Amino acid sequence: MLIWQEILYLAFIYGCLVLSFFCRKRKSSILYVYFIIVCSLETVPYFFSIHYYRLYSFGSLLYILFFTYYFSKQLLRQKIKVYIIGLLSFFSSLIVIFNSEKEYSISLAIILSVFYISLSLLYFFYQLKSKSSVFIIQKEAFWVSMALILWSIFFLFQIVPMYWFEENDLPFLEFINHIFRIGTLMIYLFFVVAITRKY
């Protein structure tokens, strides 16, 4: 990753952490917990000799746990469905992690992405059925769901052909990684909007 992208990315995620922390009491948001996880996973490799792909593998479990809890609070009437999706994703991820010879399994990437997309679509479907006086774009979870769906699409495009390009076209893999980082920065703008929403 280019140095400027790396610095910008770290500055952005820590900025989101600070903003989400200060906004937490205003609307009882727990997004700051997500950014604590993100910042921790992105910072640890600078201080310890841990390969970031291996770290991301176990980080995926934390993300699944967090967003299962997050959406269970957003979808009270669909809580059982959220828990089922979360538990299936968590234990499937555990099986993949402990049986994979790769530092980061493509199967794990697919599980995480399907998990994000499933909960986000469940949220959108619930919003369509519910009668709320609050316009959907004023809701934090709407922007979180949009961010997760878009991130999942970028992530799958990057990770699925990763090992093939690593062996056959490393420069193109590096190019895809740069695009993914830029896309991730853009998607974090959705999180910034989510943090500032009233509901």
Description:
It is globular and about 55 Å long. The mean pLDDT is 87. With 199 residues, the chain is mainly α. α3 (52-74) packs parallel to α5 and α4 (79-99) packs antiparallel against α5. The chain is built from eight helices and no strands.
Outline:
With 199 residues, the chain is mostly helical. It is 82% helix and 0% strand. The mean pLDDT is 87.
Helix content: over 70%
Distance between the termini: 36 Å
Show unreliable segments. none
Please work out how many helical segments DSSP would assign: 8
* Total count of strands: 0
Mean of all residue-level pLDDT scores: 87
SSE order in H/E notation?
Answer: HHHHHHHH
Beta-strand proportion: under 5%
Helical/strand content category? mainly alpha
Rg, alpha carbons: 17 Å
Largest sheet: none
Q: Judging from the principal axes of the Cα atoms, what is the shape?
A: globular
Features:
mainly alpha, 199 residues
What's the arrangement of secondary structure elements?
Elements: H1 3-27, H2 31-47, H3 52-74, H4 79-99, H5 106-129, H6 140-159, H7 162-168, H8 170-196
Helix pairs in contact: 1-2, 1-8, 2-3, 3-4, 3-5, 4-5, 5-6, 6-8, 7-8
